[in-house]
Amino acid sequence: MSNPPPSGGDLSRLRQLNSLAAIRALRGAEPLTLSVLAERTGLSRPSTKDVMDELVGLGWVEEVAPVGGTMGRPARRYRFRADGGHVVGIDIGAHKVLAALADLDGNVLAETRHTVDPDTPTEARLDAIDKAVSGCLALAGLTREDLWAVTAGTTGLVDPKGRIALSTAILNWSGVDLAGRLARMFPCRVLVENDSKLAALAEWQRGVARGASDVLFLHAGRRTGAGLIVDGKLHRGFAGSAGEISLLPLSQWSAGSAPLDDSPVVPKGTPPQDAARYVLSAARDGNSAAMESVERYVEVLALGAAMMVLTVDPELVILGGSFSRAADVLLPPLRRRLAEVCMRPPELRTSTLGDECVVLGGIGLAINHLDSRLFGAEGGSATPLPQHADAKVTSIASR
Amino acid sequence: MSNPPPSGGDLSRLRQLNSLAAIRALRGAEPLTLSVLAERTGLSRPSTKDVMDELVGLGWVEEVAPVGGTMGRPARRYRFRADGGHVVGIDIGAHKVLAALADLDGNVLAETRHTVDPDTPTEARLDAIDKAVSGCLALAGLTREDLWAVTAGTTGLVDPKGRIALSTAILNWSGVDLAGRLARMFPCRVLVENDSKLAALAEWQRGVARGASDVLFLHAGRRTGAGLIVDGKLHRGFAGSAGEISLLPLSQWSAGSAPLDDSPVVPKGTPPQDAARYVLSAARDGNSAAMESVERYVEVLALGAAMMVLTVDPELVILGGSFSRAADVLLPPLRRRLAEVCMRPPELRTSTLGDECVVLGGIGLAINHLDSRLFGAEGGSATPLPQHADAKVTSIASR
DNA sequence: GCCAGTTACGAAGGAGCCCATCATTAGTAG
DNA sequence: CTACTAATGATGGGCTCCTTCGTAACTGGC
User: Fold this and answer.
1) Stated in angstroms, how far is A212 CA from D26 C1'?
2) Residues B182 and B244 in one domain
3) A101 and A164, same domain (yes or no)
4) Strand ranges (E), A31-185
5) CATH of the domain at A67
6) Looking at the domain assignment, is residue B24 inside a domain?
7) Does residue B227 share a domain with residue B329?
8) How far is Cα B292 from Cα B283, in angstroms, rounded to an integer?
9) Which domain holds residue A190?
10) What confidence category does residue A384 fall into, taking pLDDT thresholds of 50, 70 and 90?
11) How many other C-beta atoms are found inside a 10 Å radius of the C-beta of residue A392?
């Protein structure tokens, strides 16, 4: 009756689990002693030592000099070798290409930005991606061979194979086999994902949504989008289109920031990319026409958000995207409207990761993927570190 | 960075996992031989034997007479002792109380129905529940002490503690501490859940949604509701209100079957509970006014469904509820409308479990709960069968 | 400079779980 | 009655984990 297939466990699987637990405890933390590590993993000290010996041998972990000053014999300290490999997150937007290079801990080592246009031809856009990543690598003194995984986030609907199923924001972007093109560019695993989903992941991993099991991330910017964390996991949906509420005309999400851009308070001749900011700022200063426009914008935003909130009932809603800088203006009406329809309105928070949300989420997804590959999926033992974790594969992570 | 806490594994945990795998393989199947069992669990035969010996000792499994006729030495056969314990699922609707008693395999052994009204007083309704369950027990020759878990499903919003947060269909039902009241009634674990959620679970466990990882269940009846399976698990949401799209006035779901009930084709004097059926039947026969009413009804149903489908992107949408008997009339327009807004419209199927959906889901939830308690949550060994699995607890399963 | 106190390390012994192997057993087929 | 088949049961070995205990390294007081 229960659907999950029965999974019998071998002896070595136990070690796998424990190794993974140790790595998780180590990652992102300062170097830990055996005793602390034993406590955190729930293992005994001798067993922890065994696990550490193995991981040190494989190159995943290294010992660092003990620190003195305490009573008693100084404890050995181990740290995760975050510098053993590197990942890249790329944010491919309509107006920019942003790339960030990080170590296996997710620490960003270099970042590069290139400006593009919505109608930049596809080849030129791919070229900008190439240059952005090359720039990061140069800044960090690395080569493409040092990359273990690359994640690209982009506007539009990304199908499970990493192709752009639909994009209205970037000219001729629909139909591009982005995963395929990037796979030719990088000698490592390539993942492709929708940008709002990556932003949601980033907020959940290292932003204001940490620890929540169900989260709705709202991207409020020139385009409106959403990403969902459900039960502590990024939710993609069967075809990768979870959260694409803009496909419903009623939602009006496809209009993006139009309610702001078209506000009568925008001075003639304002460049379109500055219009919304102007209106939000004017609304903050009490301009009643601007406030009206903001109200209209939030009405649309809130309607789509309400649909998703009532569907998923998340603990948190995160407001992100470039307009999140005007959270003081946007949050109160958004909160009010959600409260009107929810029995228990979710807590509203503002993104703190800002512009880097998408690349950070990409980095996080890449690292998650490597984690899941840390131990040979088919019951093998741990992969030694110096090798590349994957052969060159085109398709996106299934799950 | 990763949020899931590292979980160190003890040696005995391996055995737990393997025992659980064996039970899963055994449950709901005909008696299995050691060889088959070994193959299905991935264990070796000697290990499988060990596990079986233990489970037989604990009373969870028993050996049955070997079957002859094959070449070679007859193999011992083991079966899950489904009759070792019993669970009850209760469907508390506005117009009926339906209870079903099942063994640990989910086989229904007895069923009882009581008729009530939307304005039946709470105490009388609780009395009907009591009577319905007593009836089941009497039919099966059991007593309340034989019950290991009871799940009640009811219309309305059920909070995480098993109280009715809001119900518009049943008079004075809001605010009732159903879990608390039932806990006084039964000397075992009591779970309370929204009825549409249980129906979704049933369809996923033993209905037409088997094997799908993301499913939307639509309850189309006098009231409209929904339940979600996300990533192979019943999704409740932070406050248990996932899928409660009817709270959004725009969805018009709170009107339920009104577009059908109010159709001009309904003859004066038709009892309200028969109106919708009459219209659906007339529409099937080609009555254009009836078809128009159906069109209006489906428009509402489809709008809410689209909101949820675009949010979650499920693989399947299941049409259930009493109107699902008119699926031939309802599905085509529903399919058409979903196709208008979805990049990849989910497959639409009709519920086959019918009226029993909710009680079956309740039985499934109860069994799932017992499964998760099969092995002492805090690393203990397996619970012997003859004891009750739980003390009397009031609150609902958290997860 | 020495000694007590503190903390961590490392080795040894033991238990649990799983696996591979092989002789044995209980049937069927001729 | 014999040959064949397929499952059983017992043995031995390997791996992982745990507990226990003696040893090592460093601090602080005399």
Assistant:
1) 44
2) no
3) yes
4) 32-33, 61-64, 77-80, 86-92, 96-103, 108-115, 147-154, 157-158, 164-166
5) 1.10.10.10
6) yes
7) yes
8) 8
9) 84-199+356-374
10) low
11) 12
End-to-end CA distance of chain B: 23
- B44 CA → D30 C1’, Å: 66
- Single out the residue of B94, B93, B112 nearest to residue B102, CA to CA: B112
Would residue A153 count as lying in a domain? yes
Taking CB atoms and an 8 Å limit, are A3 and B205 in contact across chains?
yes
**Which of A193, A213, A244, A216 has its CA nearest to residue A365?**
A193
Give one word for B240, left, alpha or beta, with left for phi > 0 and alpha for psi -120 to 50. left
**Long-range contacts formed by A156-159: CB under 8 A, 24+ apart:** A156/A194, A157/A194, A157/A240, A157/A241, A157/A244, A157/B343, A158/A192, A158/A193, A158/A194, A158/A240, A158/A396, A159/A239, A159/A240
Question: Phi/psi zone of residue A374: left (φ > 0), alpha (ψ -120 to 50 degrees), beta?
Answer: alpha
Reported as type and span, the H/E element at residue B330 is helix B327-341
Would strands A224-230 and A164-166 be described as parallel, antiparallel, or unpaired? unpaired
Closest residue to D19 (CA to C1') is A44
- Pair (A50, A117) in one structural domain: no
For chain A, how are helix, strand and coil distributed in percent, rounded to 5? 45, 20, 35
Last residue of a domain, one of A53, A80, A107: A80
pLDDT of residue B34: 92
Which of A143, A155, A159, A173 has the alpha carbon at shortest distance from A90? Answer: A155
* Number of domains present in the structure of chain B: 3
Check which CATH number belongs to the domain holding B192 and give it: 3.30.420.40
Residues from chain A contacting residue B337 (CB–CB below 8 Å): none
**Same-domain status, B220 and B303:** yes
**Nearest neighbour of A17 by CB, restricted to B9, B206, B240:** B9
A63 and A114 within one domain: no
CA angle B111, B276, A311 (to 5 degrees): 75
| Out of B11, B243, B343, closest to residue A311 by CB | B243
For residue A381, what pLDDT is reported?
42
How do residues A199-248 score in pLDDT, each as one tens digit?
A: 999 999 999 999 999 999 999 999 999 999 999 999 999 999 999 999 99
| pLDDT score at A383 | 55
Nucleotide showing the shortest C1' distance to residue B43 CA? C18
Assigned domain for A326 exists: yes
Cβ A18–B9 below 8 Å, yes or no?
A: yes
Q: For residues B252 and B307, what is the distance between their CA atoms, to the nearest angstrom? A: 12
Distance from CA of A269 to the nearest CA of B (A): 36
Q: Give the model confidence (pLDDT) of A60-69 as tens digits.
A: 899 998 777 7
Strand C nucleotides where any atom sits below 7 Å of a protein CB: 5-13, 15-21, 25-29
* pTM for the predicted model, two decimal places: 0.90
Q: How many CB pairs under 8 A join A and B?
A: 209
Instruction: Name beta bridge partners: A347.
Output: A316
* A367 and A314 within one domain: no
Q: How many residues does chain A have?
A: 399
Answer yes or no: do B272 and B331 share one domain.
yes
For chain B, 399 residues long, the average pLDDT of each consecutive 10-residue run is 54 87 88 92 92 90 83 89 93 96 95 95 96 97 95 96 94 96 96 97 97 97 96 96 95 95 92 92 95 96 97 98 95 96 94 94 95 58 47 29
Q: Parallel, antiparallel, or unpaired: how do β-strands B96-103 and B77-80 relate?
A: unpaired
Distance A223 CA to D20 C1' (A): 65
pLDDT digits (tens, 9 = 90+) for A14-46: 888 899 899 999 988 889 999 999 999 989 999
Q: Compute the average pLDDT of residues A5-21.
A: 77
- Distance, Å, A66 CA → D24 C1': 15
* Residue B71 within any structural domain of the chain: yes
